[in-house]
Amino acid sequence: MLERSIDRVTRTPALGPGFGGDRHKAALVIAPGDLRATDPFFLMADDNITLGGSFGESHPHAGLETVTFMLNGTMEDTGGRLEEGDVEWMTAGSGIVHSENATVSSGMRLLQLWVILPEAHRNMSPRVQILRRAEMPVHAEPGVLATVYSGKSGEATAPTVNAAPITLVDIRLEPRASFASHLPASQNAFVVVIDGEVEAGATGERLAQDTVGWSASIGGGESLLMLRAGDSGARLLLYAGQPQNIPVVAKGPFIAGSHEELARYYSEYRAGKFPRAGTMRPVPSADSRASD
């Protein structure tokens, strides 16, 4: 089996002002502009809130998927509530509006990833999947706990429906524990270190907290990415996805295949033709909210 290496390492910049005023700090874990190297991943933002309250305004997306991982705290809007460890997997497709009346808790932190859709699915009907940590399959072995949100790890296979093959695994390693993560060799992969330190890949590239290690596709068949925690253990998120190798045009919250398609997204949004994400999943009852 082919063993992967870490081809390049990037560091998440220091948090800076976000769109939510002084209590909101943010940074780009993946900056847009180099899709040839990150395909199918377009960008990833790290959003941090110091004081709870309203969070942004309702806004549209089209031509992409957003994958929102709640690292800390909670976020709630008209469509439901995300707790720590939950993931919202939103396929915007032909267009959707979300984050209506969103509120967040103090200390909230989330990572939001934008994934380009395959050309044949770019204008599919939108959908929202809420992936609850407690309901996700888990792969466990000595010193390793891997929660699978998309794709598979060992015998653990997530129920997530993907427009394009995507792997997302939350991996927790005890001190000096090792884990061999199996991935399709054709996929581009990256590791985000949340806590601790790991040695990754065939050459044992050292990845510390707030660094991202990239492993490019290496052909067909299966591959493995070796991970070994440092003396204090580690937590990391592993993402992998099939490169789409298609030209895209991006502006604001939309990713399109042409400027004409981009203009159509803006026109349909302004005409009120995008459905609202809040209608696509059940709203928590008053009783369940009161018990939180």
TrEMBL record:
Protein name: Nuclease PIN
Domain Pirin C-terminal: from-to ranges: 169-274
Record-linked InterPro entries: Pirin, Pirin_C_dom, Pirin_N_dom, RmlC-like_jellyroll, RmlC_Cupin_sf
Coiled-coil segments: none
List of residues binding Fe cation: H59, H61, H98, E100
Details of cofactor binding: Binds 1 Fe cation per subunit.
Family that this chain belongs to: Belongs to the pirin family.
CDD domains reported in the protein's UniProt record: cupin_pirin_C (cd02247)
Cofactor section: Fe cation
Record GO terms (molecular function): metal ion binding
PANTHER family, alphabetized: PIRIN, PIRIN-RELATED
Keyword Iron: yes
UniProt keyword annotations, A-Z: Iron, Metal-binding
Boundaries of every Pirin N-terminal domain copy: 46-115
Any Pfam family hit: Pirin_C
